[in-house]
Amino acid sequence: MTTYSKRTQAIHHGTRRSGWGEVSEAMFLTQGFVYPTAEAAQARFEGAGPDEFIYARYGNPTVRMFEDRMAAAMGYEDCFACTSGMAAVNGALTALLKAGDHVVAARALFGSCLYVLEEVLGRFGVEITLIDGTDLDAWAAAIRDDTRLVFFESISNPTLEVVDMAAVVEMAHAKGALVLADDAMATPVFSCAAEAGVDIAIVSTTKHVDGQGRMLGGAICGSRELIRGPVETYMKHTGGAMNPFTAWTHLKGLETLDLRVRAQAASAERIAAFLADHRHVGKMRYPTHPDHPQQALAQRQASSGGTVLAFEVKGGKGPCFQMLNALELFTISNNFADAKSIATHPATTTHQRLPQEQKDTLGISDGLIRLSVGLEDADDLIADLSAALDAIGT
């Protein structure tokens, strides 16, 4: 199966059929498993194989199918499926770190990621150094001989900064440090984390994999040694495993993932071009658009800028809210990567708890809007944005 493209593997890889020979993957809603003999139970607990299961917190046939398929889609050996994207972030970091370890992380992280680093891991003795993730000199200066791990968002949320993953990986590996990337914005379709040498890629499968506003989920992808070693050990004892119903819906999501994401990204590119020239728009950021300061890097790392863009409405919060309230097709919400297009005001929602100084540093202004482009017709979305922007000041 590894000889096929990722799009094909996202539909077929890791399939396990029961004795009934079903076409659609079976959903195993069970918390436990039975053994034919006491000796078989003992053998299972002494070392379960990849298709032998003990307890749903440790593994499940439906979940294992999703893990195999997700790993293939991301280009990694293995995957551990989690209850949410933040469960994946927390699980990966906590499984690999201990008191006294040093972590270098990009400053442009989702607020909950910053909380896990600074408040949770910092409380238990992990030293955290935050830097400008776009500055390779800052990475070089911060990564030490005793650095255990580096962490960044491959494309940051919500300002869409792009990290030079291959360069950071080279610096980190030279010091013996592991590299973790939150790859949700890049999408599994356009991810290049594995090709860049990132040791673990974390994905909120709530986003593009589910992609239809239904299920929370997360995935930790990496080498079999890391995933079935420290990650699985930590996750199975702390209860962060994905439930089989979520895994089953995610398997269905993977079947259309490539088609959905490519269509959404094509629309996002058109919308970015429209917004870049609008009189009410200040800065506009879409990774592969010429207005993005790291366009060349973004184009080198991926064939598309993804499904999300950000722009500033001139005049700040007042005109920004006026524009948001005039939208008809775009939904005001705080998720992204849904089939429905979503507009978010990060300063007052997803990132509102950040201190103002930190918002200013990250570029999260009162006029900033993050757009998640869905599957609606691109012309309809542009017309909706145009009418809403024209409503400013009326």
Keywords:
394 residues; alpha/beta; Aspartate Aminotransferase, domain 2; Aspartate Aminotransferase, domain 1; 2 domains; seven-stranded mixed β-sheet; five-stranded mixed β-sheet; 42% helix; 15% strand; globular
Please give a structural write-up.
With 394 residues, the protein is an alpha/beta fold. It has two domains: 6-253, Type I PLP-dependent aspartate aminotransferase-like (Major domain) (Aspartate Aminotransferase, domain 2, 3-Layer(aba) Sandwich); 259-390, Aspartate Aminotransferase, domain 1 (Alpha-Beta Complex). Helix content is 42%, strand content 15%. It has helices spanning 6-12, 38-46, 61-74, 85-96, 111-121, 136-142, 165-174, 187-190, 193-196, 206-210, 224-238, 244-276, 295-301, 317-325, 356-362, 378-390, and strands at residues 78-82, 102-106, 127-131, 147-153, 178-182, 200-204, 218-222, 281-285, 308-313, 331-332, 342-344, 368-372. It has a seven-stranded mixed sheet with strand order 1-7-6-5-4-2-3, with helices on both faces. Strands 8-9-12-11-10 form a five-stranded mixed sheet. Helix 5 links the parallel strand 2 (102-106) and strand 3. Helix 3 packs parallel to helix 12 and helix 4 packs across helix 11 (224-238). It is globular. The mean pLDDT is 94.
